[in-house]
Amino acid sequence: MSETPENPDRLVPEPTADTKPFWAAMEEDRLVLQRCLSCKKIRNYPRPVCDACHSMEYDWIEASCKGTLHSWTITHHPFHSGLTYQLPFALLTVDLEEGVRLQAKAQGIENSELKVGMPVKVGFEHLHPGLTLPVIEKP
Ligand SMILES: [Zn+2]
Questions:
Q1: CATH code for the domain in which residue 13 is found
Q2: More confident residue, 127 or 82
Q3: Is residue 116 helix, strand or coil?
């Protein structure tokens, strides 16, 4: 995690060698997921080793960006000073059509509208050149 130049108090992820394809796709408003080349298990978050068969061989598949809301938390108190600018915020856990979960902030969904099982889609928040974050929106 690091801070953004526009908002030095905001924490953002730092792409690594293992996650660069994920972040590059985000820049193009695409969500990609890793797929093990040995057992074909799809996984998220990006990581070098398959948790099912321990293979280190994988490719990337284009995700549909469609899913359903599994759960959420609404944060009113920051656990880090880098999150105070956006309080309160809803962090959603989504079951993607591809069978994996993704966590991201809600965008354009009122907290009172959140319901387990509601259809949602992955959207894209362009923070600055080189960094786009996934967000969860209404379909
Ligand atoms: Zn595998």
A1: 2.40.50.840
A2: 127
A3: coil
